[in-house]
Design goal:
mainly alpha, 123 residues, 0% strand
């Protein structure tokens, strides 16, 4: 049985992963505004591919690692954005593994919860 949340494989997911990777690298190099990267991330809110979300979570972690010295209001805005990205996924996937979950869904759940915790998402 195919998981509702699955690991990549389609051409679309490979292109999506490349878009996320390119956007974060361009942002780190100063060629793309971080707000543009965030807008791209929001476009993936209905994405179900584990690998795409894994890239988004990694990119967001890199942004948080870079911005850790920013004023508290900036960090609060980052946390709020992270909440808008990851909280719906945590709600959909839940906190508990089920016997029926395949390994990809388990990895997806673990990654989303870890991303939420890293961004200090309160849910």
């Amino acid at each position: 049985m195919m998981s509702k949340f699955h690991s990549g494989g389609s051409d679309f997911s490979r292109h999506s992963i490349g878009l996320v990777q390119d956007a974060i690298v361009l942002s780190e190099a100063g060629y793309l505004n971080t707000s543009t990267v965030f807008s791209l991330f929001k476009q993936f809110s209905n994405e179900r591919e584990f690998l795409v979300w894994s890239e988004i979570a990694d990119a967001f972690r890199r942004i948080l690692d870079t911005w850790w010295e920013q004023p508290e209001d900036v960090l609060d805005a980052l946390r709020s954005f992270a909440s808008s990205l990851f909280a719906p996924l945590v709600k959909k996937l839940g906190f508990e593994h089920q016997e029926s979950d395949d390994s990809t869904k388990r990895r997806f759940r673990t990654m989303v919860i870890a991303a939420s915790a890293a961004a200090e998402v309160p849910e």
